[in-house]
Design a protein that fits this description.
The complex is a heterodimer of chains A (216) and B (154).
Chain A lengths: L2 H19 L26 E4 L4 E3 L8 E6 L5 H17 L6 E5 L11 H10 L6 E3 L4 H6 L3 E2 L1 E7 L4 E7 L15 H10 L13 E3 L6
Parallel strand pairs in A: 3-4, 4-5
Antiparallel strand pairs in A: 1-2, 1-5, 3-7, 6-9, 7-8
Chain B lengths: L1 H10 L5 E2 L1 H10 L4 E7 L4 H16 L5 E7 L6 H12 L4 E5 L4 H8 L6 E2 L1 E6 L2 E5 L5 H14 L2
Parallel strand pairs in B: 1-4, 2-3, 3-4
Antiparallel strand pairs in B: 2-6, 6-7
Classes of the chains: A alpha+beta (216), B alpha/beta (154).
Chain lengths: 216, 154
């Protein structure tokens, strides 16, 4: 076997192995903008972020709750807008039962001026958000949790020692028409937790807007 | 030929509805063809920004076994009001289809398990090999990803 054909063989084998075994190759490098984040069952870390009323809010603000419906959402994303009324409804249904909503805007406001803090204040006031709407300026919370899109929901259960993640994913199965929804994932998950059981469906995926990460 | 294609696409613009099974069937029967499948929507700003790069790729590869397919995720009810006017204005050379699948939580994983569901997202397919990217492309990153992928399976 001459040098050229040996090299061809080595390259071919490397490519073959690379593609079939998921080895790190240029084509397999994970998107650096997609953090690993939390999984169902993990401890959820606390944080402190500024609410639209100027006060600091974190999980510790909810020590009297049974849990929290943490929603990564924003002003500009049409999918977030489609879900705004449904997020308000979730809060109105479940806050009194011990699962209030906490909405977090994770977007870089340089990339999306529409998601700036003052614009969040305007939106919260226009829509009369009954829940805190906080800004994750450093994006550390979104990265720690592994939020990938808006809207992206994490249902957290308060335990003796902290908070656990019980559900990650979509609000329901029909972004376009709330009246045609067949599965209300967050509602079902919270109802299961209120009954002392685990959500039957603990993770789902949905179409949404990418989180706009800070550049550089 | 490109001019003819553009004129054709402007005047007889049709956006057929396809299912994931339709797409998979097409990948399976398109021996040696490299498919570049971009998931986008008219409401998605970064998607709209990167579409011209896909159009440029389609024009450059015209005549080669390359299919650049824009899979639109707008609601079917927005086809006439939003999707068609947008496409008429842009006059892209690439084929566009409207995704007819409901219930995203059931099909996102089937496109690729690593996909969170955020768009834009792009799938490259050739001879059963797949590469999935949940990211925004520039002309440069799209061209290099495409070329590397296609040439690996030459």
């Amino acid at each position: 076997m001459n040098c050229t054909s040996l090299r061809t063989l080595v390259v071919t084998l490397t490519l073959f192995l690379g593609f079939s075994s998921g080895m790190v190759s240029p084509l397999h490098a994970q998107n650096p903008l997609a953090p690993d984040g939390l999984k169902v069952g993990d401890q959820a870390p606390d944080f402190t972020l500024k609410n639209v009323d100027g006060k600091l809010v974190g999980l510790r603000s909810f020590v009297d709750s049974k849990g929290v419906i943490l929603v990564f959402t924003c002003n500009h994303c049409p999918y977030s807008v489609k879900y705004e009324d449904r997020i308000i409804e979730l809060h109105n249904t479940f806050a009194a039962k011990g699962f209030p909503v906490l909405a977090v805007n994770p977007n870089d406001t340089v990339t999306v001026p529409e998601d700036a803090f003052t614009k969040m204040q305007e939106r919260a006031s226009e829509k009369k958000f009954p829940f805190p709407y906080v800004i994750d300026e450093t994006q550390i919370v979104a990265k720690k949790y592994g939020a990938r899109r808006t809207p992206h929901v994490f249902v957290l259960l308060r335990t003796r020692t902290g908070w656990t993640v019980e559900y990650i994913g979509a609000i329901d199965d029909n972004p376009d028409d709330a009246s045609k929804t067949e599965s209300k994932f967050v509602e079902d998950a919270v109802n299961a937790l209120l009954k002392g059981t685990k959500p039957e469906t603990a993770t789902t995926k949905a179409i949404g807007c990418t989180i706009k990460w800070k550049k550089g | 030929m490109i001019v003819a294609a553009i004129l054709f696409s402007v005047f007889s613009l049709t956006v057929p509805k396809v299912t994931l099974a339709d797409l998979e069937h097409r990948f399976a029967s398109g021996k040696d063809t490299t498919y570049v499948v971009n998931f986008w929507a008219t409401w998605c700003k970064p998607c709209v920004e990167e579409l011209p790069s896909f159009d440029m790729l389609a024009r450059r590869e015209s005549g080669n076994p390359v299919v650049v397919l824009l899979v639109c995720l707008d609601a079917p009810s927005d086809l006439n009001a939003k999707v068609l006017p947008f496409l008429r204005k842009k006059a892209f050379a690439c084929e566009t289809v409207l995704f007819a699948e409901q219930k995203p939580h059931l099909w996102i994983d089937k496109v690729d398990p690593s996909w969170s569901g955020a768009i834009p997202a792009t799938l490259f397919v050739k001879n059963g090999k797949r590469l999935f990217r949940e990211q925004e492309f520039t002309q440069r990153t799209l061209d290099s990803t495409f070329t590397t992928f296609r040439d690996h399976f030459r």
